[in-house]
């Protein structure tokens, strides 16, 4: 009986063995552990992955934040992912993320992608720390000094929303997203109104698309009156429109020169985006609901999008996102990575590393964290005069204070069901 190569040389992979180092590593640094930290300093559960190495001083952190299914991500990382990569050389980032992705045979959805992202970004952090350089330098270095951001202004009324927008402009923002509440339980991104839309309807809290299509251009007309022509204005539909309704809205918004109009269609209907975009006089932003690299790539390559705004951890981390940034650069699409409060400060650092190193950068969505988040994540980036500047420290330059994180335990707050709350007057659920 012949010997298995694995019996004589631990560097050689046996055919049925995926749990080993497949080639000779350049040194003896190895991954020794992969675990998660879940913390909710702002009430939103943030999941980060910690990768430890055989060098006790060298750990990496990655964003794996999927607030709606955070417990599933934790289980994936700790039960399935860790055992595949412990013992491996941490510099083989592409191979390690492919190993995890393909090990399950069926491709990942958002739970698996967030888990892989946690590993991926932690390995980039480790690579930066070993090189003694910030991650953006590993991506080729900066092509700009900083990333310009937009923040969200919202209100129950147009006036309240524009008051909020004025505050943001006074703080130095050049770009603001405007959202106003709709009657019933028909909108989000702005305060929930309590009202009943139609007492006689089967579902009295239902959303009325006609009212939305009329009210939204009025919001932007008022915004141009009050904020002037220089401020860049954005709006997020959060899906729920048909392709034709999307065109009606985009045309009605043309006089107000939007920077972009986001998520006009639900992902189930993304095949119709090229036709909507061809008829839309305002740029379209799409992508935060993409949960696979190939879906996101199709958005770029099929001509359905002006601004690609994936949630980087939802597509599997920095490694897939940099491929999309390259595809965007080559096709004239711009990036606008998703970055609201359900992105951890590690994820924000990854967004900004992409922003400053990619010629395809368009805009970065920002979020002003509560001070408690900065206590848990020392080094977390702060928006100054609307700009996000990358850290110059090695890796992400953002660490996790685990004792502080433990003071803010996460709960199942109801956010895990929130996206399914919008229904029409007939009671039919409307896809976010
Ligand atoms: C955005 C998004 C978010 C999402 C949120 C879901 O453009 O910032 O639409 O506000 O609704 O990330 O948890
Ligand atoms: Mg959005």
Architecture overview:
There is one protein chain. With 432 residues, the protein is of the alpha/beta class. The protein folds into two domains: 5-135, Enolase-like, domain 1 (2-Layer Sandwich); 138-393, Enolase-like C-terminal domain (TIM Barrel, Alpha-Beta Barrel). It has 14 helices and twelve strands. It has helices spanning 5-8, 70-85, 93-103, 110-131, 135-138, 158-170, 209-227, 243-253, 273-279, 293-301, 318-331, 345-357, 371-376, 402-406, and strands at 31-39, 46-53, 59-63, 147-155, 175-180, 232-236, 260-262, 284-286, 307-308, 334-335, 364-365, 387-388. The strands form two sheets. Strands 4, 5, 6, 7, 8, 9, 10, 11 and 12 form a nine-stranded mixed β-sheet that branches. It has a three-stranded antiparallel β-sheet with strand order 1-2-3. α2 (70-85) packs across α4, α3 (93-103) runs antiparallel to α4 (110-131) and α10 (293-301) runs parallel beside α11. The chain is globular, with a radius of gyration of 23 Å. The relative contact order is 0.14. The model has no long low-confidence stretch (mean pLDDT 94). The structure holds D-gluconic acid (GCO) and magnesium ion (MG).
């Amino acid at each position: 009986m012949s010997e298995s190569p694995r019996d004589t040389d631990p560097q050689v992979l046996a055919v049925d063995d995926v749990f080993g180092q497949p080639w000779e590593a350049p040194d003896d640094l190895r991954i020794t552990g992969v675990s998660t930290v879940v913390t909710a300093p702002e009430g939103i559960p943030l999941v980060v992955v910690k990768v430890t190495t055989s060098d006790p001083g060298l750990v990496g952190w990655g964003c794996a934040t999927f607030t709606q299914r955070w417990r599933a991500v934790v289980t994936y990382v700790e039960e399935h992912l860790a055992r595949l990569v412990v013992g491996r050389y941490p510099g083989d980032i592409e191979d390690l993320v492919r190993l995890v992705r393909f090990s399950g045979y069926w491709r990942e959805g958002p739970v698996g992608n967030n888990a892989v992202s946690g590993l991926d970004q932690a390995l980039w952090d480790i690579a930066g720390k070993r090189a003694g350089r910030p991650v953006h330098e590993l991506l080729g270095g900066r092509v700009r000094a900083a990333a310009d951001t937009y923040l969200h202004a919202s209100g129950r009324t147009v006036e309240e929303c524009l008051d909020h927008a004025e505050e943001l402009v006074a703080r130095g923002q050049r770009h603001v997203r405007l959202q106003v509440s709709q009657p019933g339980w028909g909108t989000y991104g702005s305060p929930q109104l309590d009202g009943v839309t139609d007492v006689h309807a089967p579902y009295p809290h239902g959303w009325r698309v006609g009212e939305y299509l009329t009210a939204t251009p009025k919001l932007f007309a008022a915004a141009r009156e009050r904020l002037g022509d220089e401020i860049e204005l954005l709006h997020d539909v959060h899906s729920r429109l048909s392709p034709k309704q999307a065109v009606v809205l985009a045309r009605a918004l043309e006089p107000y020169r939007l920077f972009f109009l986001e998520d006009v269609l639900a992902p189930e209907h993304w095949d119709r985006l090229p036709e909507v975009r061809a008829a839309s006089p305002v740029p379209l932003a799409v992508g935060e609901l993409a949960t696979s690299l190939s879906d996101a790539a199709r958005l770029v390559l099929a001509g359905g999008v002006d601004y690609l705004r994936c949630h980087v951890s939802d597509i599997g981390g920095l490694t897939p996102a940099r491929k999309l940034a390259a595809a965007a650069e080559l096709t004239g699409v711009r990036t606008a990575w998703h970055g609201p409060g359900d992105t951890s400060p590690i994820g924000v650092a990854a967004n900004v590393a992409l922003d400053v190193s990619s010629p395809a950068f368009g805009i970065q969505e920002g979020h002003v964290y509560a001070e408690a988040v900065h206590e848990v994540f020392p080094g977390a980036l702060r928006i100054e005069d609307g700009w996000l500047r990358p850290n110059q420290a090695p890796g992400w330059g953002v660490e996790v204070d685990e004792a502080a994180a433990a003071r803010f335990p996460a709960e199942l707050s109801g956010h895990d069901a929130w996206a399914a709350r919008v229904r029409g007057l007939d009671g039919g659920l409307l896809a976010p």
